[in-house]
Amino acid sequence: MVKKNINTERFSQVKNSRRKFLNYLINFTSLGFLGMIVYPVIKYLVPPKNSEPNPISILAGEVNELENNSWKIFRFGRKPGILIKTPNGEIKAFSAICSHLECTVQYRSDFQHIWCACHNGHYDLNGKNISGPPPRPLENYKVNIKEDKIYVSSA
Length: 155
Ligand code: FES
What we know:
Layout: H1 2-45, E1 57-62, E2 70-76, E3 79-85, E4 91-95, E5 106-108, E6 113-116, E7 121-123, E8 129-131, E9 140-146, E10 149-154
Antiparallel strand pairs: 1-10, 2-3, 3-4, 4-9, 5-6, 6-7, 7-8, 9-10
The protein binds FE2/S2 (inorganic) cluster.
The site of FE2/S2 (inorganic) cluster (FES) has 11 residues, from loops.
């Protein structure tokens, strides 16, 4: 009778330790699966650091290709830039990335200023945020014109 109780107790201990081991194994595997799901989602949501440096100066266009009160988008490294020929013929360049949620802005010839269609953000012709949700001005680029070619560089 006593021997039977010892065997039952021993069996219970082995069963408990096996159960603990299986619980650890299941928890460890669950963490692995959770990591496999969460890691790609985080990598998708967090943009990679820009490995390509912004160019010092790029050829953004030619003076003759833009009429007064018109605009075009150009590439400034990996970012879009906006080149504007104002109604009085002045040429200006800014980053085309809205300071609110990074939509690409455009020039509205009817408003005669820069507009972001995503949330109705407005910027004046100096890139200053004047209406809507954008919290900061647009990044201003320096414009140099040489022989009818428009060169844009970081200000
Ligand atoms: S992203 Fe431009 S106003 Fe919201």
